[in-house]
UniProtKB/TrEMBL annotation:
Recorded family membership: Belongs to the ATP-dependent AMP-binding enzyme family.
PANTHER family: ACYL-COA SYNTHETASE, ACYL-COA SYNTHETASE FAMILY MEMBER 3
Domain AMP-dependent synthetase/ligase per the UniProt entry, residue ranges: 24-397
GO molecular function list: medium-chain fatty acid-CoA ligase activity
Residue ranges of domain AMP-binding enzyme C-terminal in the record: 448-525
GO biological process, one term: fatty acid metabolic process
UniProt-listed InterPro entries: AMP-bd_C (IPR025110), AMP-bd_C_sf (IPR045851), AMP-binding_CS (IPR020845), AMP-dep_synth/lig_dom (IPR000873), ANL_N_sf (IPR042099)
Protein name: Acyl-activating enzyme 13
Source organism, top-level taxon: Eukaryota
Length: 537
């Protein structure tokens, strides 16, 4: 079982009958009183987290086995979130995280699709699912957003967990359903077992050398793999400290890092984010008074690792971050169905901007030619990325046909196009459904075109999309945000003239749209089909 697997290194005992290695027992004494989570200005130890989770598990299931029943949880990124995650797993349930940013209709779709048998909801979001819970007669637990305790109307006496024997949970049982972002179809529930989550965690802990001395600041939403596994699970598995910032804002992040400069302060060592967040942190740095900027730089330099993912990191951001902080951001590749699969090396001198590195420990990767559908056996090549390993999901929930279609020879078909060099280093060319533009017989990489135009002196941000074209099949459209002081518009002719020495003629944009902001989803990804439709019809 495993997001908390190794967090259950910290088990103090209480008749808990879970399938763990003896080393978890031994770690318990070492980390029992250590701070596990900092949330809403409160510190919670590993011992307290485990005890609270066991109490919630008893309130949820009475010490009985939920037998893989799905429990939907709508709670902010906080101590409350983690304690309920652990409680559900302790009870033998399947954790289904929801996001407050989801519209009402989508929240209801997730609960129905997952066939949830219980709903846990933070008080500030209680109205979002009340009607649905009543319609389906689902147990509806209204909890505190601070510590996850039951609120008035559902309060019960706290049980004595020391005398309870919890269910035996096999690692191969279902553990979590995360819903895809639904970029190409209605969101699908991605089902993980406990050992699949554990495999993802162990791979990252090894590759990025997590230790119990690490302290990570989380600013990511917790309904995607990036925040749940890469941050929360890896931190608690390692005996590290997880500090929650429930909503990202650039200034509070910089201010928190500056506390690293105080000798007695708690020292943030890790930070993981999406490219949009790094962009906004850079904007905040640039807007800071000149006398403050050196302090900001020193604060960021004191961290040991910055990681970016969930979308392509612009090379301009990569190099600007290096100039400000001295750090080369580590880029990696993953997706909901596989967790993390590829990563740049931990050694900074071996990282490459715009590339996502080598397969992570335990992960097998193949390429399949886009035209012939044959697997590429040469060292270097370009094709669809195929992934296999203990990290890969079990199935799409209640979608056997979609699950069967997603695999070939035991490998998951990612739908992403990648290229591999002679050394085995990978670069993502784009998603076949939205980032590969088929124009006049050519297959163009939208990410390549974006990388080029992000070097334009007037462009702050851009996204490249395919536009339906009667003559070409698709043509290249460019949506851009201009830098401050660059006016409100730039002509298509100027952009084509600037790009002609950097791109082949058939890769140059045929339409351009200047906007104030490019819309992104909760994970910082541009919904390209939506953008293409809204901007170009």
């Amino acid at each position: 079982m495993q997001c908390w697997s190794s967090s259950f290194k910290y088990i103090i005992s209480s008749g808990l009958k879970l399938i763990w290695k003896r080393s978890f027992w031994e770690k318990a004494q070492e980390y029992g009183s250590k701070t596990a989570i900092v949330s809403r200005k409160n510190n919670y130890s590993y011992h307290q987290l485990l005890r609270d989770a066991k109490q919630k598990a008893l309130l949820l299931a009475g010490g009985k086995d939920l037998e893989q029943a799905r429990v939907a949880v709508l709670v902010p990124p906080s101590y409350a979130y983690v304690s309920w995650q652990w409680a559900i797993w302790l009870s033998g349930g399947v954790f289904v995280p929801l996001s407050p940013s989801h519209p009402q209709e989508e929240l209801e779709y997730f609960v129905r699709d997952a066939e949830a048998t219980h709903i846990v909801v933070s008080a500030e979001f209680q109205d979002k699912l009340t009607q649905l819970a009543g319609e389906y007669c689902l147990p509806y637990l209204r909890v505190s957003p601070v510590d996850g305790s039951l609120l008035m109307g559902s309060e019960r006496k706290k049980p004595n967990v020391d005398t309870i024997e919890f269910p035996v949970i096999d690692k191969k049982r279902n553990a979590m359903i995360i819903y895809t972002s639904g970029t190409t179809s209605r969101p699908k529930g991605v089902l993980y077992t406990h050992d699949m989550i554990e495999a993802q965690i162990k791979s990252l802990v090894e590759a990025w050398q997590w230790t119990s001395s690490d302290h990570i600041l989380n600013v990511l939403p917790l309904h995607h793999v990036h925040g749940i596994v890469n941050v929360v699970c890896c931190a608690l598995y390692s005996g590290a400290t997880l500090e929650m910032m429930e909503k990202f804002q650039a200034q509070p992040v910089w201010e928190r890092w500056m506390l690293n400069l105080i000798p007695q302060g708690s020292h943030i060592s890790l930070f993981m984010a999406v490219p949009t967040i790094y962009h906004r942190l850079i904007q905040m740095y640039d807007a800071a008074p000149p006398g403050i900027q050196p302090l900001l730089s020193d604060a960021a330099k004191s961290l040991r690792l910055f990681v970016s993912g969930s979308a392509a990191l612009p090379e301009t951001t990569f190099h600007r971050w290096k100039a400000i902080t001295g750090h080369l951001i580590l880029e990696r590749y993953g997706m909901t169905e596989v967790g993390m699969a590829l990563s740049n090396p931990l050694k900074e001198e071996e990282r490459r901007p715009g590339w996502v590195g080598y397969p992570l420990p335990g992960v097998q990767v193949q390429l399949k030619d886009e035209e012939s559908n044959q697997w590429i056996t040469e060292k270097a090549g370009r094709g669809e990325l195929l992934i296999k390993g203990p990290n890969v999901f079990r199935e799409y929930w209640n979608r056997p046909k979609a699950t069967a279609a997603a695999f070939e020879k035991g490998y998951f078909l990612t739908g992403d196009i990648a290229q591999r060099d002679e050394s085995g280093f990978y670069q993502i060319i784009g998603r076949s459904s939205v980032d590969i533009i088929k124009s006049g017989g050519y297959k163009l990489s939208a990410l390549e075109i974006e990388r080029v135009y992000l070097q334009h002196p007037a462009i702050q941000q851009c996204t490249c999309v395919g536009i339906k074209d009667d003559e070409w099949g698709e043509s290249v459209g460019l949506v851009i945000v201009l830098k401050d002081g660059q006016g409100d518009d730039v002509s298509l002719e100027e952009l084509r003239e600037w790009g002609k020495d950097k791109l082949a003629p058939y890769k140059l944009p045929k339409k351009v749209k200047v906007v104030k902001e490019i819309p992104v989803n909760a994970m910082g990804k541009v919904q390209k089909k939506q953008v293409a439709q809204e901007m170009f019809g």
